[in-house]
Queue: 2 jobs
Job 1
Amino acid sequence: VGGLITERTARALLSRVAEPGDPRVSRLVREEGGLGAVGAIRSAVADDASWARRYAARLAGADPEADLARVRAVGGRLLVPGDLEWPSQLADLGDAVPWALWVRGTVDLRLTALRSVAVVGARAATDYGTHVASVLGAELASHGWAVVSGGAFGIDAAAHTGALAARGVTVAVLACGVDVAYPPRHEALFARIAADGALVSEVAPGAAPHRTRFLVRNRVIAALTRGTVVVEAALRSGALATARDAERLGRPLMVVPGPVTSALSAGVHRELRAGALAVTSATEVIEAVGELGADLAPRVDGPSRPRDQLDPLSRRVLDGVPARRAATLESVARTAGVTPAEASAALGLLELAGFVRSGPDGWCLARTPGAPG
Amino acid sequence: VGGLITERTARALLSRVAEPGDPRVSRLVREEGGLGAVGAIRSAVADDASWARRYAARLAGADPEADLARVRAVGGRLLVPGDLEWPSQLADLGDAVPWALWVRGTVDLRLTALRSVAVVGARAATDYGTHVASVLGAELASHGWAVVSGGAFGIDAAAHTGALAARGVTVAVLACGVDVAYPPRHEALFARIAADGALVSEVAPGAAPHRTRFLVRNRVIAALTRGTVVVEAALRSGALATARDAERLGRPLMVVPGPVTSALSAGVHRELRAGALAVTSATEVIEAVGELGADLAPRVDGPSRPRDQLDPLSRRVLDGVPARRAATLESVARTAGVTPAEASAALGLLELAGFVRSGPDGWCLARTPGAPG
């Protein structure tokens, strides 16, 4: 691969050449962008610089245009920072932010992520665990929350399946290419997720999952979501790595209690004793993550419409509506610095769009806009 | 009943005449002692004062000497404040402190209470709950902790039985007289508890349990113990009243998680979300209550020997031993203000008595003296 390429193609190439989270490539991308990073790696490989030798073989075989075509063929795309669909909260990962995300699915990843919860747990789950994960997935989905998990056996699969059964949105963040079914028995599940939600990966199409890819993948699950729920986890479960990532990112870490006689709940109870929040229902999960998400992730019957897409006057009026109590039209207008007539017109539209609601005492923010009930 | 009586007899009479926790009688006892309270009630009844009418019938029929004889006949006694065996921490109940406690059993209630944990929960417990309560009771007992509960069906009975099976000490605080088997099916259990531990009640021998007596009884369970563990509780379980009492007294409130699909764990999980500590084993319970109890409730192989029974020199040296780290002989002597020779002699005896232990770095307090392991 030589000659002129775009920033997107450069990042597609990096996702093929370097492992996700590779510190040297991350720094190059941070300092010089994807194109600059590709140029630096190419030069260093040409000069046979010792640090670049590890990239040489993969660089020689890389064909980002072919990868991009390949993902398009399965209904996918490559997202890079700056895209409207790039999930802005991934920036919380700091130096470990992905360079790009391969996405295969039908939903807008950014809007989906704004109103999403991770539900993760043990592969060797018990009947209790898979039952709880499936009900939780279904209830979160039916309240308009996307369920993000890792596509693995056990808790992950139950959470995805529950969300799909409730005709909701679910996202699987994979450690392999978005066109690879791993585990193979999940081929049909992944097809359903791609149809109603999204498969997401940092690694290029066709790439196989490695042990380390599962670990670095977990930080994406934690960063994409408003909070992480661990349903079942033995003391050394990989699901606890996602829990650590969520805590590191300042996202709420929630756990579902289980029998103290179950080894599959021992990891969960240790988290509980270390300060994680116990949750027993989707309502409690939403209560924990909803305050963060309420005015960031409005969701109406149609597609979501984030606040920053509002016109300036509406946004100003929206900012004048208190979050926790109702305010009169006059009070909102005064706070927003607009006339009562302007406030009245804007509030009517904001109500239709699910941002605010009116009650006997005036106007307040719709806490979980679009949620049934 | 007329003529001269002792303070003890007066309190025996009060326990027959008034309900436990009766606010007016509590105030009279607080202000004038048991004898003064009896005198005041007798005068008021004689004068037909309206406030005293409720006591008249019971006063006429009361025979405290007969009650004392009756409890002696079943191997029991009446404890009043000031007795060596009176559990000093009951003072934490403030205005609601019992006037007296009827005790039937073989252990010293004060020393037992100093190293005790309440294990309470639902009567309609599940197999999971009774299993956990029984194992918890046995493990606490085998670590030298007394298990206090309410003698009811379900969790209470499992906790008592577990402690007895481990040849430990268990205490049932009853809402009826200590010679009454309620529930009747627990007659054999109560006999075993009286043989190896103690039955305790605020109400006089022969008294039947009332609904309100169960509620006021709960505060005694919470106050007698270093902390309360709730094993299973539905949302409206009476066990949660004991939890409230424990919190009010500043005692650790612990709960055992269970399946979120179980209604019998719903109350437990609500407590958990409100700040109770999750515990999954006796070790975790002891960790939560042990710091408080360590140097208050030394327990050796023989009978316990509380700190205030030590000779002044030993007590001074003991006060010079740090709780959390080891100190050299010289350091202990300096802190205690005694000679190294005096410190050395005292430390040897304190070690034999289980108060301190020596390690490679010097001397430190024995955290759970006398506990196996």
Note: Chain A touches chain B through 20 residues (CB under 8 Å).
Job 2
Amino acid sequence: MRQPSMYLWGKKGFDPWRVRQSKPRTTGLTCVLDKGLGLTSFYDLLELASDFIDFIKLGFGTAGITPLPILREKIALANKYNINIFPGGTFFEAALVQGEIQTYFRTLADLQIKWVEISDGTIDLPLARRGEMIRMARHFGFHVITEIGKKEPGSVISISQLVQLYEHDLKQGASYVVIEGRETGENIGIYSPEGQVNTLYVEQVNRRIRPTHLIWEAPQTHQQVELLRIIGSAANLGNIPPDDILSLEALRRGLRSDTFFLWK
Amino acid sequence: MRQPSMYLWGKKGFDPWRVRQSKPRTTGLTCVLDKGLGLTSFYDLLELASDFIDFIKLGFGTAGITPLPILREKIALANKYNINIFPGGTFFEAALVQGEIQTYFRTLADLQIKWVEISDGTIDLPLARRGEMIRMARHFGFHVITEIGKKEPGSVISISQLVQLYEHDLKQGASYVVIEGRETGENIGIYSPEGQVNTLYVEQVNRRIRPTHLIWEAPQTHQQVELLRIIGSAANLGNIPPDDILSLEALRRGLRSDTFFLWK
Amino acid sequence: MRQPSMYLWGKKGFDPWRVRQSKPRTTGLTCVLDKGLGLTSFYDLLELASDFIDFIKLGFGTAGITPLPILREKIALANKYNINIFPGGTFFEAALVQGEIQTYFRTLADLQIKWVEISDGTIDLPLARRGEMIRMARHFGFHVITEIGKKEPGSVISISQLVQLYEHDLKQGASYVVIEGRETGENIGIYSPEGQVNTLYVEQVNRRIRPTHLIWEAPQTHQQVELLRIIGSAANLGNIPPDDILSLEALRRGLRSDTFFLWK
């Protein structure tokens, strides 16, 4: 973590509402989607914005097709900058359907990866097996993020089911639960085919669950704005494109028009 | 400025319509929106395309959350490549509402920044105060770009108001006036919610104001095409995404289909 | 080509359906659209993903406005990584309308470029002249990619015309024929104004032509998914944005939800 004096916002007149917690944070998390950054871009991004990145997800199965020297270097850099890095849930699901889940966990552990995602966006995963997977990951020494929601177009889950799964997963040992939004943020979960947020749904979830352990995937800027409006500056947001990290941080601090007077 | 011989277009057969002025230009300006490039990306972009970039705007308040060593290096690089760099107007507005405008100008001057943007996209700024801000910026030694237009979705300004503000700002000392288009180019000013250009509006403004000191924010390719069609190859265009600079330059030169026969 | 052992997918449990051919490939080609990458970004991309890139097109006329030292270095890098690099067809068309086609071919040959695109997306090119251009390019020692389709919004070509042109071009010496999709994949050829794929059209073409020498421009992810579904994992796809190469490769291998069970 750099000192605030390393930024203009650390100086008088440059941080309008002073709402932002520094790293390591427990809320206000920003989770980036890396769907194939080159190593120089990855390094460049961390040099610029590591103070504003809490998690990096190596999207879907891209970890499997990244040259190992580059993958290893990304993991080392993330660890150095205190960013939690992990492969997308689809990679976990691929290993599971092939009956290679032990190999999967062991390989990730060997790579110094410390977080894994347990999901059933594409495969069927009965509740008992879901719990077992979380506990197995914990047993291998991982912190666990689970994901709720199917990746099929138009798929939605009821709020009561969401709350139930959320409580189940935390109880089994998960640290965070992600609400599916995909890379596009369209026609999935809380997003209409045009990417509009189902604000009523978010408000109801927000009333029933403290947002501390929930992460909302919100790839589009106007979705981030909407979620920050409902949940507050410290909403945990995921699937943020690498190019939009400073933009989201500006939104969180009231340094962009859409949230300028929000924390006043 | 590189010599034309450093490009294929400097050679016979490679520059169809020869419409393009070299840097430093007074029209045909391309203004890039940097909403958080890493330092290597920034350098990489200037090495590639500095001949086609006249201004770089550090979008909204991102200058405040860029590590100072990186911010300083960006400014030094821009100055070296004869590109005018300045922070977005929202950063100015944030300083103003906090009563820290003197600190703001002094800090930017200390950073060797030579241009500032004066805007009221989010805050209220009475005309007298707007003029005062322009003059104060000039007094600090800055060149001034002002912006016309509110950032609120759907907001439009009448043509006569636009012309009046334009003349006011230049008279107070502004060098350029920007027409608001935001990062998206959707549901704002001349853009419909789907990003379609209000061509009638642009044509009327273009009839009443020589386009020399106007900059139209036009983030989407088809918007750039439309504005080049109406105003000509030398339209001043802003909020160009860094990835699209060569594309816009190709449009300006008739090296892309949409403008291929336009300057014939 | 790196060894499979350089990737996780080379290991047990990480390559679900094993459908993918290694480079040099004759089908399953991925053609990237470079519309202005900086040299570091270009190198960074090849270091990461050269095993999954078969062609790089320097979009439209961008080759003409890339500083020559950078252009030369891009060509050298592409050659080193066994990637075929070539300028977009619009650049060819610009040279042709100026009566400088010999200069064009000679200049590209001097630059060590080995592939050219022959197209009439913007200009008129009678069939006899089209054949002549293909043969002339071959005579200069180039491999030839031709393109079928006009760039005008909404333009479509009949399937029988497409098949005829395809056969004509191969007979005259072309190695591949590209179906126009532009950078956007919207309101052009097989794409509706919203970017939806005309699946019936693709299915019918796929029934009449073996897909080996056809390349479909498919810039958007859901378009890639649709074409892979119809044609199979080894469809040749073009105009892939640089950021999406690993994503497309994951789709081809069943490592992303949309194609997870497709090759089972």
Note: Chain A touches chain B through 37 residues (CB under 8 Å).
